[in-house]
Design a protein that fits this description.
This protein is of the alpha+beta class and about 100 residues long. The chain is built from 5 helices and 3 strands. It has a 3-stranded antiparallel β-sheet.
Length: about 100
């Protein structure tokens, strides 16, 4: 396996290790949202939401489009949620004391 791909995958896992970023990605699954909407949805300061969105955009996990005065964010690569959903499902098994295959 190519080491560059492994390094990039490691970076993606680091990005996904932040619960607020995970929540943002999940919230953007079905619709575009602006910073104000995400801030209200996640009960976070707008500046913190903007910062996290900037990080996600830099690493091509979200994209942004201007609509009038607002900038709306959406998933750049929706299959990233496959990774998120698998991790959440695994977490539910671990927290429920289940073993693989149960």
């Amino acid at each position: 396996m190519n080491n560059d791909y492994i390094d990039e995958a490691s970076l993606i896992f680091k990005l996904l290790s932040n619960p607020n970023r995970l929540k943002m990605l999940v919230n953007l699954e079905n619709k575009s949202m602006n910073v104000n909407e995400l801030s209200n949805q996640l009960n976070m300061e707008q500046s913190a939401v903007s910062h996290q969105l900037s990080v996600l955009k830099k690493h091509q996990l979200v994209d942004a489009n201007r609509n009038g005065k607002s900038i709306y964010y959406q998933l750049n690569d929706p299959h990233i949620l496959d990774i998120v959903n698998e991790a959440v499902q695994h977490s539910s098994h671990v927290m429920g004391g289940k073993h693989h295959g149960e």
